[in-house]
Each structure stands twice: as C-alpha cells, then as structure tokens.
From TrEMBL:
Keyword GTP-binding: no
Record protein name field: Peptidase A1 domain-containing protein
InterPro entries in UniProt: Peptidase_aspartic_dom_sf
Signal peptide: 1-19
UniProt keywords, alphabetically: Signal
Taxonomic placement: Eukaryota, Sar, Alveolata, Dinophyceae, Suessiales
Signal recorded as keyword: yes
C-alpha cells in the first residue's frame, strides 16, 4: 500500500472547481463540509483524547514482575477497569512487562507503544518517555520473538503508526493466556485520540489479509463490558456461551461480505431519533457497538442530517433536547432494543461528557468495497454515474427536468501531496460544445463536492471537451498542501487556503447539466507505473447492481454514551449481543 506518511490531505473542507453555465464564470470554491456553532464539540477521530498523564496512583512500573496465575487459555477472566479521559483502561502483561490499554470492542488488535525518538511525531515529545512509560507501559521492538509478519502502517481515525508484529506471552486478569501475536507501534505520525496508549482490541474475526486479532488467538467465546456501577466497571472474558437474558437479544451482522476488514459487533438499526423525531434514511443502517468511542460517530452525510435537525429544533425545545439521540436496534423475536445517548456531564466520571456526536473519517482497513459501509452508496442528493469503457468513462444521468439529481463519481485511488488527476468533460452531443455545470475536485470517500459560497473567481467557463487537472502541491513540511487546478493546460489556479487533514481524499466529479459524462485521463498510481490505467471506482460488491439486490448498510459507531449504566455481553460464536 502507498506510504501513508505523505498523506497531508484535504478532509475538513471540500475544494472544487465549478463552472456555472448560468453565470458563465469559472469559480474555485472552498466550502466547509461541516459548520457548527461553539456549542457542539467536534472530534477529529473516533476516540477522545487520552493524552493527559494517568494519575500517579495508577502508574506502572515498566519492569514490573508478572502477575501470578495458573496457565490456562480456557479460564474465565474478570479484570477491573479504570476510567480515564473518556475511556476504560485494563491492565495486562506481555513478556512479564506491565501495560495499560483502552478496552476497545471496535478494533481487533492488541497494540502497545514504544517510546523514543519517533515519539516526537506523536502526542508528546521524546523527553516525556519516562513519565509516559510509567503510565502506559512501553515495549521494545526487540522484545519477544519475531512473528514472521512484515511491518504494516495501521491507520487510526485521527492518525497512523508503523507497527512491528511480535510474539510474546500474555497474562491478563491473573491468567496466563499464552503466546500471542501483538503489534508494537514504532514510527508514529499521530497516535490519534488515545495519546499513544495501548489498545486492547476485542473484535475477533477478520478477513485473511488482516493481521491476527487478539481474541482469535485465545479460547474465549464471550466478552462482557460491565459499566453498571461507577467505580466497579469490569471486563469479563469467558469460554462459555452467552447466558440467558431477560432483555432482548440483538443478532449481530457480518459486514465482511460488504467490504469490512473485520467482523464488527454490529446490529441492524431500525430507528434513529434525533430530538424526538424519526430521522428517515433511504438505505439500511448498521450500528457498531464500540467501547473505544466516546459518544456517537456518524458518516458525513448522516452527520449533516443530524446537524440540520438539531439546528432546526434547538430554538423550539432547547439545545440539550435538540441534541438527544436514540437508536433502536432490531432484536430477536420481532422485538426492538432502544439505546439512548446519555446527556450532560457525568459526576462519577470526572464530570466528563459522553454526548459527543462526531463526523467520522474513514476507518482502518478501508477498501473500495468497504467504502460503501461508511459513506453509503451514492451520496445524499446525487446519483452514482454509470461506468463505461473499462471504468475510464462515467456517463452522466439524463437531465430531463430541473428535479434530476446531479451525477457523481469518484476515482478508486486517493490523492496525496504532490499528486494529481486529470479528466476530460464529454459532450452530450458529439457535435456540440456547450457550457457544463460541473464540479471537479477532491473529497473524502463517498462525499459530495457541494456549495457555491466563499469562492475565488477567475475568467473562463468549462465546456464539453475541456480537460481539467486537479491535485495537491508538495507538502512544505508543516503538514499542509494547496489544492490546484489547470484548465486545458493553462495557468495554475490555487485554492485560497492550505488544507491539513488526516482523511483520505479522492478525485471527485459532479455533473449537473451540459455534459454527457467525464473521462478519467490520469490518476495517482500505487505502483508508479504509467502504463497502469486510471479507473473510476467500481460500485462496491454490496451495492445494488440490479434492482432488488440489497444495498450495503451505512455504518455508525455507538460508544460509551450508549453503554454507561449497562452491561454489554457479546457471544462471538452465536453472534449475539445482550444488554442488562
């Protein structure tokens, strides 16, 4: 895969080139994707920051001895959890060294940190290593045994790290689990939301290309995160089946056929209520049960719907009531399980808030198929264009009346600093060169190029037959890059502002009239071979190719704000979840 260290790219704003045949002007538009008042807190990633140091009372000795316990991979484990900075933390031993990690039902790996010269790229400088390692625990890249797996770059919601895969003995909850493969995070561009601490990932099943998950290397069948009593929170791992519950049992979906890299613990959403009103969505929605998320994570299109509802309702019922969220999950026996996002500051948890709603960036393991899960099929208000000629040409929809949706298409490869793509606008009639209402630019996977405000205008208009090159300038070293456009090999037009975002962005075109389609002439190549053809992204496998086939669901992440005061138990064999 491409070097992700070069990925200082646009995500917080949508930069587009537009030619509006109504005005006959060529415009460069820089439009904020999400604009919120100060009353809404925005996270750049799935997890809130855990960057502050842990309390001294909970500090770890980096060379502490191993916990006692009999060797058995089939014993039940019950581990007391500690709340810190928006997450629940568990202690464990690797090779006799003590670590603390975020209990995360939304990720698959056991990941620990190293500390040294490369930490200056992360949340803290290298000078903080002694304090950091006393708090979280630190590994060496030479500890344990080589796993035989090559290093990978793991992408978090707000950062990334080079990971070296090692084997070592795991002890957890006083039980010797045995040797496991784990990841030691080495060169770090950003640790994302947890400030560099370890992850105790509890998603069990994966696709073949993904590294071994923690739970697949054990004999544990069920896991239970018990947050019913503040100060007595626990994580239990058991080889036994899920016990009977009086509350409804939620069947869990397998999203891997739709492109997900792992089998998330996800339930089917049958209702989504914002401010007491049902929010209607044209497709299916699946909710990932994710203890590594603070509140609620929504894809950008759904977040915009949430934002519009709360803005409209706030003057009528107040801001707090307008931000109320309730999720209804399908349960067995035709029942429904309601889960509400707890609101306000929680006194028992340092007066922290868990009612944080975030716009999601792309998750780790993103592929062309997985894109449908996190962006929906066609973005809201647009129609995916039909692909022709091996995927190099996309055909615009027939604009029969003013109510027709604009056509939308994205390339399959993202754009990094120093890279560009080029397209040719195709006429509706081979003999006619007419003005086109078209947007050409860069956007996150599944997002639209939208808005016509805050524009920088220049002379000229786009017509059928024109070529448009769009790309990112080289990163000057401060993590920013400028978007630029060149029309018909003419002068370069630069975006008015530099952009800095951890999100992957893709060549994107929208056609609202005048043009019959768009041809992708060139795009970034992972292999660097000029002979490798550029292609528009195919419709993901899970998306309806013929009428009647089910669409892939849109994915949301339900975090601790939905789990406080509850015990969530998951059976990884029967694939069920229960709450009490």
């Amino acid at each position: 895969r491409r070097s992700l260290a070069r990925r200082h790219i646009l995500g917080s704003a949508l930069l587009v080139v537009s030619a509006l045949h109504k005005t006959g002007r060529f415009q460069v538009a820089a439009v904020a994707a999400v604009g919120l008042p100060a009353t809404v807190r925005i996270e750049t990633g799935r997890r809130r920051s855990l960057a502050a140091l842990l309390p001294a009372a909970a500090a770890l000795a980096a060379d502490a001895g191993a916990a006692s316990g009999s060797a058995s991979g089939a014993q039940e484990i019950v581990e007391l959890l500690t709340y810190f900075g928006g997450g629940f933390i568990a202690s464990f031993y690797l090779g006799g060294r003590l670590f603390r990690g975020v209990v995360d039902t939304g990720s698959p790996f056991l990941l620990v940190s190293t500390c040294g010269k490369n930490r200056s790229q992360g949340a803290r400088g290298a000078g903080d290593c002694s304090t950091y390692c006393a708090a979280w625990g630190c590994a060496s890249e030479n500890e344990g045994k080589p796993s035989g797996l090559v290093d990978t770059t793991e992408v978090f919601a707000a950062g990334e790290a080079k990971v070296n895969w090692r084997d070592n003995d795991l002890e957890f909850g006083g039980v010797k689990v045995g040797p496991v493969t784990y990841g030691a995070m080495l060169e770090v561009e950003s640790y994302g939301g947890n400030g560099g601490g370890a992850f105790l990932g509890l998603v069990k099943e994966r696709i073949e290309r993904i590294r071994p998950t923690l739970l697949e290397q054990t004999s544990f069948r069920t896991l239970s995160v018990d947050l019913r009593v503040p100060g007595k929170e626990t994580l239990k791992l058991s080889p036994s089946a899920l016990p009977r519950f009086s509350s409804p049992v939620v069947p869990l979906l397998d999203l891997r056929p739709d492109g997900a890299p792992v089998r998330y613990y996800a339930g089917e959403v049958v209702g989504l209520r914002i401010a007491g009103e049902d929010l209607l969505w044209p497709g299916r929605i699946a909710a990932v049960l994710d203890s590594g998320t603070t509140g609620l994570g929504l894809p950008s299109a759904l977040f915009l719907r949430y934002d519009a509802v709360r803005r409209a309702r706030a003057p009528q019922i107040g801001l707090r009531a307008a931000q109320a969220v309730e999720i209804l999950l399908r349960a067995e026996g035709g029942k429904v399980l309601p889960l509400s996002l707890c609101q306000g500051r929680q006194e028992m948890y340092n007066n922290d808030s868990f009612d944080i709603v975030t716009a999601l960036p792309e998750p780790p393991g993103m592929t062309a198929d997985a894109a449908a899960l996190f962006s929906g099929q066609s973005p809201l208000g647009a129609e995916r264009m039909q692909l022709l000629e091996g995927g190099t040409v996309s055909k615009a929809p027939a604009f029969s009346n003013n109510s027709s949706l604009p056509g939308w298409v994205q390339a399959e490869r993202c754009v990094s600093s120093g890279e560009s793509f080029k397209v040719r606008l195709l006429p509706q009639d081979a003999e006619l060169r007419q003005p086109c209402k078209v947007f050409v630019g860069l956007a996150p996977r599944g997002s639209r190029l939208q808005g016509e405000e805050d524009t920088l205008s220049t002379s000229g208009a786009l017509h059928a037959g024109d070529t448009v090159e769009c790309g990112l300038t080289d990163d000057p070293g401060d993590g920013t890059a400028i978007v630029y456009w060149r029309i018909n090999s003419g002068p370069v037009v630069l975006s008015p502002l530099p952009m800095n975002s951890p999100r992957l962005i893709y060549p994107t075109v929208e056609i609202a009239g005048g043009c019959g389609g768009v041809e992708l002439l060139s795009s970034p190549s992972d292999s660097g071979l000029e002979s490798e053809p550029a292609r528009w992204g195919e419709v993901p496998n899970g998306v309806a190719a013929v009428e009647g086939k089910k669409h892939s669901p849109l994915i949301i992440f339900l975090g601790l704000g939905f789990l406080l005061g509850r015990r969530m138990s998951i059976d990884t064999v029967s694939n069920q979840a229960a709450f009490d």
